[in-house]
Sequence to fold (347 residues):
Amino acid sequence: MSYRGPGPMHQRAVYRVSRTSPRYARWMPLAGTFFVVALVATAATVLVLSRSVESAGTNAANGDSRRAAAPALELLASRGPAPRVDQARAALPAIPARAYILVDEASGTVLAESDANRRLAPASVTKIATAVLLLELGSLDDVVTVDVDFNDLEPDSTVMGLAPGDRYTFRDLLHGLMLRSGNDAAIAIARAVSGDETRFVNTMNALAARLELNDTHFTDPHGLGGPGHYTSARDLATLTRYAFTLPGFAEVVRQMRWDTHGTKQIELWNSNVFLYMYDDADGVKIGYTEEADRTLVASATRDGHRLIAVVLGDSYGATHAGNLLDWGWETACWPTAVGGCDRVKSK
Fold:
C-alpha cells in the first residue's frame, strides 16, 4: 500500500459537538375536498421553502433544478469496458471487515467482495445519499437560513458548527456535510430541501428505490441511525457510482479543505483519513458509530480508471481499503479496442 502526506488536521469537529352531469354529481364534493387539501399542502411547502432558501439565480433555473430527478438507472449504465481480473498476479488480501466490495466505477464490474449484500449500519457514509439529493434537488448557490443549533446534538457528535439564524449557501453546507461530516449540516440540508427531516428521509428511501438498492433503508439524513437504518456494501458502491455522475460530487469529496463564506468563516478540513494516506485517492466518506464500527467508501483514480472500495465494520478500514485497491490495480486489466488489455502503471 502506498501512503503520502501528513494526517488530517481535524479528525473530529472543532466545535463540541370537470364534470356537471348527474352521473358525476355525487363525486363533486369529494373532488372539491381533495382539491382544497392539495392546494393547502402545496402552499405550505412553498411557504416553508421560501422562508429557508433564498434563490441565488433565476426562479426558472432553480425550479428546474429542484424538479430534476435524474433517471438513475440510465446513469448507472456501463460507461466503459468491464475489466478482467487475473488473480494469478496477486493473492486477494485478507480483509477482516464485516463486509467489503471493490468495484470498477465506470462499468460497475465487481472485482472482489465478501458479504456484500449483508445489511449493516452505515454510520456517516449515509451522508453520500444526503449529498446526492442536495445535488439533484437543490441549487448550490442558494442561500439557506439555518434553524439548527449544533449545541443541541450529542457532545461527541461531529458537527459543522451551525447556529440558528446562520446564513450559508448550499455549497457551504455540502462541504460541511462531506468534509467535516457535520450532523448539523445534514439536518439543515434536509429541512431546507424538503421542509422537514421526515419528508427528506422519505425522499432518501425513494432514491434507494430508484437505484434498486434492495438492502438499504434510511431513518435519518446523517447516519446516527437505529434498527431500521441499514445498507450494504454493494448498495453503497452503487449509490457512489451514481453520485459520481452528478456535477459537483467529485469536486467536493476530493477537497482537503474548504473555508465557508457565510455568516462566519468556518475552516473545514476533510476528516476522510484515506485521502491523506493513499496515492491518487479522490474520495469519498468515512463514518463511525459504536454499532457500525468504522465504515468507509473510498475511491482512487489511476490512468483514467477509478475504483471504489467499500469497507464496513472495520477498525482499520482505510488501511484495508488501500490493500484492496492495490490488489485491484495489480490484477485488473481493461480491454482495448485493438484487442489488448490496458493495465494501470504501478506506483
Summary: The mean pLDDT is 84.
